[in-house]
Amino acid sequence: MRLSPLPRLPALVSLAGLMLVIAGCATHPVTGRSQLMIMPEGQANQMAYQAYSRMAREKSTLPASHVASQRVQRITQRIVPQAVRVYPQAGGWQWESRVFRDDSVNAFAMAGGKVGINTGMLDKIQPSDDELAQVIAHEVAHALSGHTREKMSMAMTQQMGLSVASAIGGLDARTAEMAQQVAAVAVDLPFSRRMELEADEVGLLLAARAGYDPRAAVSLWRKMQAQGGGGGPEWLSTHPSSGNRIQALERAIPAVMPEYRRATGG
Predict the structure, then answer these.
(1) Could you count the other beta carbons within 10 Å of the beta carbon of residue 196?
(2) Annotation says 139 is catalytic
(3) Which residues contact 149 (CB under 8 A, 6 or more apart)?
């Protein structure tokens, strides 16, 4: 009897890669969307912490005693417990928010609860507390949703063949180096529009439960739209168009108003 030849390495790599992708599927805790999460949460968080610390060293930040820093911290401290309520694992994250001296109208979030607000967002938009809460809740929603980790995982799939082949060949150092490169790219790249819409939806819920008026999301985006002029603020650059964004928010607000009323006793 003639034996069948052993599968070639590319076939083994493809099969192993498919198995890793299947094993790495997760479900979003709020929206129920299926997410690719090959990158372990602890590793993604640690890489984000390092990137955030480096950014804080390289860029100037307002001191913790500054009124703007205290304001951002106060609002963040009301929103984070709502994130933990949705995703209990977030209770063990090293949550941190900083105000960066940067004139661009921008804010960001990283894995593991690292949030940044630029002074340009505060100075040029002049948000009310309810409006600033929408910005912070949106960024917290990115962290809660594991969007940085998801970006890392998607980037890793592009090099899955190399990763699996390295594991088969025992090239651990090469695999580790590749993972670091993937993480750096994923942290630097903007979130996708799908992720931005998801952060809108989740952010509305978190802010409402923290006692901030969801309707402020609409007034915030109208301010952003007015501030934008031709090209628009940086915070708008990877987001869906402002008009569509406002319409989507207006449709979503009624669903979270009961949460806001319960939080405020209204």
Answers:
(1) 20
(2) yes
(3) 37, 39, 41, 44, 111
Structure tokens at 138: 């949106």
pLDDT, tens only, 47-100:
889 989 999 999 999 999 999 999 999 999 999 999 999 999 999 999 999 999
Say how many residues make up the chain.
Answer: 266
3-class DSSP assignment, residue 243: helix
58, 131, 139, 201: the catalytic one is 139
DSSP string, 195-223: HHHHHHHHHHHHHHHTT--TTHHHHHHHH
Residue 54, token pair as written in the block: 């480096």
Question: Model's pTM, two decimal places?
Answer: 0.78
For residue 107, give the DSSP letter.
E
d(CA 197, CA 138): 10
| Integer Cα distance of 40 and 178 in angstroms | 15
Q: Please state, in angstroms and rounded to a whole number, the distance separating the CA atoms of residues 52 and 56.
A: 6
Q: How many angstroms separate the CA atoms of 111 and 143, rounded?
A: 5
